[in-house]
Amino acid sequence: MNRVIRLKEWGCNLETVKQPNHKQFISATSDLEDKPYILNTDINGFIINSLLDDRELRKKTIVLLGGSFVESLFVDEDKRINAVIEEMMPDFKVLNGGYSGATSLHLVNIIVNKVIPLNPDYIVFFIPTNDQRVQTVDNGYWNKDFRLSPMVPLSKNDSLIDDYTESSHLKSVTTILRLIHSILQVYDIPHCYVTTPHRYILSTDDEWIKKNNINTISYSKKILLREKVNDVCKIISKELSINCIDLEKALKDRSEYFYDDLHLTNSSSPLVAKIILNSLKSYI
Fold it and tell me: How much is the pTM?
């Protein structure tokens, strides 16, 4: 069986729209609009704001990396985090390297194969929430989950197989974050880490909790795992003197910012972008 290393991206020079499917729409809060959302990518497969007229004139580049939180699929393209930062920083073009289901290991692949050749002025690395999920599967980042595995079979009829033995060090978020920092240091690319926020509220009166009949005990366990991953990010950032934006803390009491457990709404995305921007101004 032939296998390939998975590149978590939408593809190059894409011009399309994405709309929530029925399940996504009915499970979200009323803040998610049922409409098409523009999704355009550049020649390197990064999500861009196609409404920006002077992209080619901007000589500096910021790359945002992360999972679906950064991707912001169901947010208008001019309200995504990358677009809002671009609007406020006219010297920079901001590339969105977010993708649903990405783990930090997937993002290592993105850094090595897509980001380094660009020689960006700055990288903003959001800790993917899927790093929490890989803590619960065999072999951690090197798992066989159809969405989380770093490799995929060429044929859809083949299943991914391996003979790895389960090993705790393969599940280490700490090691991956050290690795990412080391790679970027070698290539002299300035960067910061960002803790990824999520819905904290556990009240049965919460719209999303009520709408999906969420078991608050089970959900609290998921929150704890996400906190632990974000805590690792903060510890490593302090230890290695990496700038860290604690977005988890900043949005802890802002459940209205999310239309589900971790994705921003059209109205909250620009507000979060400005929080990030205020920190970036002191770093760049």
Answer: 0.94
